[in-house]
Amino acid sequence: MIWNETKECMSRDEIETMQSARLVKVVNRVYHNVPYYRNKMQQLGLEPGDIHGLEDLHKLPFTTYEDLRDTYPFGLAAVPKSEVVRLHASSGTTGKPKIAVYTRRDIDIWAECVARCMTMIGITREDVIQVAYGYGLFTGGLGAHYGAEEMGALVIPMSTGNTQKLITMMIDCEATAIACTPSYLLHVAETLKAKNLLDKVKLKYAICGAEPWTDSMRKQMEDTLGIKAYDIYGLTEICGPGVATDCQYHKGLHIWEDHFLPEIIDPVTMEQTPNESGELVITTLTKEGMPLIRYRTKDLTSIDKTKCECGRTMARIQRFKGRTDDMLIIKGVNVFPSQVEEAVLNVPGVTAHYMMLVDRIDNEDSLEVQVEVENTDILNDANLKQDTYNKVRKEIRRTIGLHADITLLEPKALEHSQGKTKHVTDNRKLYQ
Ligand code: DLL
Ligand 1 within 6 A of 140 CB? Predict the structure, then answer.
């Protein structure tokens, strides 16, 4: 299929008329098919007939991570399981992951959104694209894969974990595009440089997301690899990659407003603040499997609805300024400090006093977890110390899926605050 961009160039009035009609439909769908939403609306004295369009959006209840947790695993599904064809998940603050389910049509629309993103940055069916996001529960791999395939590009499903193989295939198969996290692409660029292989590479485009990155990172990867690098945004709960991406002017990420209705709210008052920075809230307008009404993403940004220099009229999300929660993205993996706490508390002999030190060294994320032991005997007995060290490392790996460097500290070595204890020092400075 050739991507026709008419939808991207509708007038603001046309976009908003379409959004209003779709909003009414999705509100009806959740009211009639998701008891959780029906209850929420009834508690506010709302019926679907009260929602006539965008002007009534503010009346609708928000959906939060806590709602997903409370209805885990399928409580927000709006269709029977027989209509669900896919499930993805990402980390929650502790314990259970956040789950999203998709019907066949959801997968098709998602692929279309990713295909639009790729078309927008210049990728065509002549391109060979390496998808080096993780395949599996994470939405990155399969999301980018289906989008690129839908467009007709040749997709190499690399997944993550083997840079040498990625480089070999990049050169041998003459890959012209890559989809991966920005930090990983910098690592690939450094490796190519160190091996003197840069002149063997035919890459032209990179489509990077899943974690915050800066313009200086973009410049570094563009200069080293001689490519154009673009930003792609998304989240499991909404669909995965492909919610928004930036065009050649890099003045914000165009969000596909025919499918995703964005709002900005003040995270404290929860009032709409359309002309200011605040928390991005998204309503899915066409999703069948798990439609979400006013989902609070916890991502901080602002929205520009003026026409872009590229001619597109779909609103632009500005570079993210941070999150309202303490979620970190380390090596592309979402990590909450509470998960680290959960892990260390599973190990006998260590305390709940821990500190996460996050850094980026040679373009690779590093995580050190410092944790206090209960008593110094553990540190004085070499076997016991090694055993405790191994257990902490293993528990952390099991809980967050990442290897961390572990430092065992004496009791009271860390600052014990009476107020809100600081558990993270992140030296990467990823938000601009
Ligand atoms: O990261 C989906 C994705 C995969 C997006 C591949 C782009 C490319 P989650 O694991 O659910 O989903 O994490 C979602 O990651 O709320 C943001 O905080 C952050 N994030 C995603 N993309 C970007 C980006 C995927 N381009 C969370 N810039 C989101 C900054 C991003 N942060």
Answer: yes
